[in-house]
Amino acid sequence: MKKKFKLKDFFNSLRVRIAALILVLGVVPCTIFAFSFMAVYEKRSVDSDVTELVAKGQVLNKQIISSGYLNQHESELVDDQIEMLSKSYSGRIMVVDDTLTIVKDTFQADEGKTIIWGNVVKAFQDKTTSLYDDENNYLVVTIPIKAEGDDTVLGVLVLNKDMNYIDTNLEYFQSLSIILLIILYVLMIVVAVVFSYRFVRPLHKFGRAVSDVDRGISQELVEVEDYTETKELSEQMNSLLNRMRVVDESRQEFVSNVSHELKTPLTSMKVLADSLNGQEDVPVELYREFMADIGDEIERETKIINDLLSMVKLDKAEATLNISPVNMNELIELVLKRLKPIAEKQHVELLFESFRPVIAEVDEVKITLAITNLVENGIKYNKEGGWVHVSLNSDHQYCYLKVEDSGMGIPQESIEHIFERFYRVDKSHSREIGGTGLGLAITRGAVSLHRGDIKVHSVEGEGTMFDVRFPLNYISKEARV
Question: Which of 80, 234, 238, 329 is the most buried (most CB within 10 A)?
């Protein structure tokens, strides 16, 4: 079925976000640079013109002072220099004497008039000033006129320059920038699309490989080593797949074994019942023997069903826990009392050592189930004349329970799997003693629900020791958060 296109999914796509990031990192700086360049160009042009006008004004200043132009108001050489400079800048030059009277105006519009302008006044205070009007495109520089070595300001030189060339150049640069930016945008879009596809391609490859495994198309491990991250993901996924395959194989084996275990007692009961029904005048002794056998088979069937039900209950939410203060010493003594007949039958000695009274907040039913499974395993997988030692201790925070036996032990290669569901170390022996492969999984589940942990130490042929630790005061998930 074709997946429906969603705009939200499109924008949440990693490929789209990578492409957008590349565009932002490429386009934004270039755009800022283009506009900044024009602003910098305008400022640098104005600064350069001011410097040039001041330099020209200084030269003109010397000629005005040496010729006595401010007093005589006539000097052909000075007039020619002023007119030439005015034409070269397409502007206007005025000479103002110390009475603020304009003695020379290249526009011949204001000669003889008095000028009162802030920049002229500042020039009489021996300050060179400049004014750039970007709206009307002109630059005005005022330069004090004074003799060399004398700080007395005798007049002011006002130089006005036409700055239309800046607008002309800016329009050219702007047109060129727009063309270049359009080309750049197109290139960046292409680069963003290509690179985003290349960046995301390993993830799609990873997804297809996982999908193929999920649909059963491929049994190969996922191998996407384009990036360090995809390599790590592949390794983690392969580890998960391997565990899932192990669990699936164990589950299939469990289903087969449980089917056999459930069927065998039923078959035995049917055979025994048919034998009784097929005979007339069955002796009481034989009748009792057959009924006892049927009872054993029913008990065996019940054990398998109870283990399955316990596993299902442990899979339920934490809310199913019934937490209450429990005397752990009395609880363990009760468990050992119940299991004592089984131990005596196996000729296994049960020992209990308590270092101090221990009260813990636990679900009594589930923690009892966990302890029972550990002790019962120690009895069943033990040797004749062996022992099972249970010890109880605590500190201010945790309860410590240790169950040690002198049994057959666990092979090193099996230790890391014994808490997995449906896993059995010795399948033939487990079947003989009625094991279902769920006992230790149930135990670990019960301990985990109490925020505890369980560890195992074993030497094959010498025995096994389980260390259990859980908090004395139960802490729920909500309280921990």
Answer: 234
The CA R_g of the chain, rounded to the nearest whole Å, is 50
Q: What is the pLDDT of residue 314?
A: 63
Task: Please count the residues of the chain.
Answer: 481
Q: Are the C-beta atoms of residues 458 and 400 closer than 8 Å to each other? A: no
Beta strand 92-97 with 102-105 is antiparallel
C-beta atoms surrounding 449 within 10 Å: 22
Q: Residue holding tokens 């390993």?
A: 202
Burial string for 8-22 (b: 16+ CB within 10 Å, else e) reads eeeeeeebbebbeeb
Which amino acid type is present at position 220?
E
Name 329's Cβ contacts closer than 8 Å, sequence gap at least 6. Answer: 354, 357, 358, 392
Parallel, antiparallel, or unpaired: how do β-strands 92-97 and 153-162 relate? antiparallel
What's the mean pLDDT in 270-277? Answer: 78
* Mean pLDDT across 238-255: 71
How would you class 154 by CB atoms within 10 Å of its CB: exposed for 0-12, middle for 13-18, buried for 19 or more?
Answer: middle
Tell the residue number behind the tokens 């386009």, with chain if given: 27
What are 80-98's pLDDT values in tens digits? 888 888 888 888 888 888 8
Helix axes 284-314, 228-277, angle to 10 degrees: 160
pLDDT of residue 187: 83
Q: What is the pLDDT of residue 481?
A: 42
**Residue 47: φ, ψ to 5°:** -60, -40
Q: What is the pTM of this model?
A: 0.46
State how far the Cα of 348 lies from the Cα of 301, in Å rounded to an integer. 25
